[in-house]
Amino acid sequence: MSTGGPARGTLSQEEAFARIRLLRSPNVGPVSYRQLLARFGDAVAAVEALPQIAGRTGRPYSAAPERRVHDEIAAVRKAGARYLFHDSPEYPPFLNEADGAPPILTFRGDISIALQPCVAIVGARNASAAAIRFARDIAHDLAGEGWTVVSGLARGIDGAAHQGALAAGATIGVIASGIDVAYPPEHANLQEEVATRGLLLAEQPPGTEPLARHFPARNRIIAGLAAGTLVIEAAPKSGSLITARLAGEMGREVMAVPGSPVDPRSHGCNQLIRDGAILVQGAADVIELLSGFTGKPRAMLREGGADSFAWNIASHPDAEDEGPADIAGILSVAPVTVDELIRQSNTNASAVQLALLELELSGQLVRHAGGRVSLG
């Protein structure tokens, strides 16, 4: 069996297969995936343990069928793509630092592009002609200065940013579908150009159509890859603002282009600036802000997450011997931080995390941004 191979990785074929199977198993997300790897040492042992862990909640559980994984690997190979695992030396370091970073990605193109300094450019799908031109020009200028432009291949600002960057340098497209699905359809040629001349990344398995719930996950990858996110036209409550907020929560720079107060498409950017985002009028502003980025942003647009979200079982050698905490009476449909659960349960972090893992695998737990959890 061949997975197409991790990017210059050292995983055995058995472990690579088991990792894909683990992540595709029911209710296993990025956080639980990493906790399971840390707890059991490798994915082969973690997959074997899944039924027992989930079964302690009284619900039957089966890992992803092996046939499904074989079919996925074949589809990845057919698409000319490869797998990228979270511990590969080619996994983007900025993304790996983000809470809930995808443990496995599929990609086409030059993965080394993601190791270069990156800036995300996002904005309205129904952007004005002036904003489209501005996005194309600033992406061109940034790419010409050696910056990799990251965006989501959507209509409007995203597409313009990719086009401008391709004309002068490198760009990364992050899609909400499988690596073999082009969306929107009118960007099929652009997506192919990004894949052949730049880098195309997907978190979803091949063949996955872009559903509404996939776009916030796509947005966190865009924000996680870059030192900063620039928003060019965005309505209130738009996906672009979600990306900006995620960037702020990750401790990255948040930038926005101001617009007319009478144009609804500018309200989101103007609000970001009012909330502390850095006002940008050209590529020089972005370069000045990001060139000295050390992980401490000047923008104050941050909604800090909980430290417990990054809690690592591997740093607690006695965690494997801990039983799960009794937190059923504390959890509700209202999200709460894991730190708060630890305080209220009067037990240690490892016991709480094990209880959360059991609930998540059985489909009873939902994880939210900022390290919060709730009953599903």
Structural summary, described in words:
One of its GO terms (biological process) is DNA-mediated transformation. Residues 83-290 form the Smf/DprA SLOG domain. Belongs to the DprA/Smf family. This is DNA-protecting protein DprA. Residues 317-371 form the DprA winged helix domain. This protein is α/β, with parallel strands linked by helices. The chain has 3 domains: 13-90, no CATH class; 109-291, 3-Layer(aba) Sandwich (Rossmann fold); 307-375, Orthogonal Bundle (Arc Repressor Mutant, subunit A), CATH 1.10.10.10. It is 40% helix and 14% strand. It contains 14 helices and 12 strands. It has helices at 13-24, 30-40, 43-55, 66-78, 93-96, 129-144, 157-166, 188-197, 214-225, 239-249, 267-274, 283-291, 338-345, 349-361; strands spanning 82-85, 104-109, 118-123, 148-151, 171-175, 199-202, 228-232, 253-257, 278-279, 336-337, 365-368, 372-375. The strands form 2 sheets. It has a 9-stranded mixed β-sheet with strand order 1-2-6-5-4-3-7-8-9, sandwiched between helices. A 3-stranded antiparallel β-sheet has the order 10-12-11. The longest helix is centred in the middle third of the chain and has 16 residues, at 129-144. Mean pLDDT is 89; it is low at 5-9 and 302-322.
